[in-house]
Amino acid sequence: MSAISVGQAVVLGVVEGVTEFLPVSSTGHLKITEGLMNIPVDDKSVVGFSAVIQVGAIAAVLVYFFKDIVRIVSAWGRGLRDPEERVHHDYKFAWWVIYATLPIVVVGLAAKPLIDGPLGSLWVVAGSLIAGSGVMWVADQMGRHKRGEDDTSFKDAMLVGCSQILALLFPGFSRSGATMSTALILDLDRVAATRLSFFLGIPALTGAGIYELKDALGAGVGAAPLAVGTVVSFGVAYASIAWLLKFVARHSFNAFVLYRLVIGAVLFGLLATGVLGS
């Protein structure tokens, strides 16, 4: 019997699609939802399922930013063939995304037993939601929002890429929250920070989904729930991306900060009262 039913996969796909790119922690929300549905959050197949359906959200990024991605990849290809093309920002940016992904790959492989074990606790998720909200608020206040996407540098990409490690080690911190906060501290404007977070998430999350696929299929989750969860995640994530880019163009991140504080406090309450197991 599959560890996750098709109906549960639909719910989890919606949660993943809504939260993957909002700075509220998709991993944290998935773990909370799984706990409320009595799905064991530390089960190997469930952890694998969560990683695999992220690929649906990443596919939404690929579709939404298709023209940008084609432009960047084309510039990278031209630069590999012709040294004169290497002065263009898009060529450099492609390499920066590759380099900025390496730290999270190394840490993810080295710390996997901790990530799948004690760091996957809902207590950690609750604490990370609250701690991450503080970081996000400070970053939004500190940032001068004066630099656009064309002003990004290798240093920006590496620092923002390395910040993904926080979300990897502390589920609930939020990958998008960590990357956007770091970009804001580096004085990127909110739209540039959000787009950089999207682009840096493509290789990291795709790689994680492919890596975990064997565990999801081999340890108890059927192909049907995986397929349904991934497709639902794709559709919901596409709508979420479009909404977020419009939102950050006109608003601060204060609404996300407040939401994270409330969810973190509620989760602490559910854990303390035994409604949810750790």
UniProtKB/TrEMBL annotation:
Cellular component terms (Gene Ontology): plasma membrane
Q: Which domain of life is it from?
A: Bacteria
Please give the Gene Ontology molecular function terms for this protein: undecaprenyl-diphosphatase activity
Which EC class is the enzyme in? hydrolase
* Catalysis: reaction(s): di-trans,octa-cis-undecaprenyl diphosphate + H2O = di-trans,octa-cis-undecaprenyl phosphate + phosphate + H(+)
Tell me its EC number(s), please.
3.6.1.27
Q: How does it sit in the membrane?
A: Multi-pass membrane protein
TM helices/strands, residue ranges: 46-66, 93-115, 121-139, 192-211, 223-245, 257-277
Sorted UniProt keywords: Antibiotic resistance, Cell membrane, Cell shape, Cell wall biogenesis/degradation, Hydrolase, Membrane, Peptidoglycan synthesis, Transmembrane, Transmembrane helix
NCBIfam families, A to Z: PRK00281.2-1 (NF001392), undec_PP_bacA (TIGR00753)
Leftover remarks:
Bacitracin is thought to be involved in the inhibition of peptidoglycan synthesis by sequestering undecaprenyl diphosphate, thereby reducing the pool of lipid carrier available.
User: Which family does this protein fall into?
Assistant: Belongs to the UppP family.
Q: What is this protein called?
A: Undecaprenyl-diphosphatase
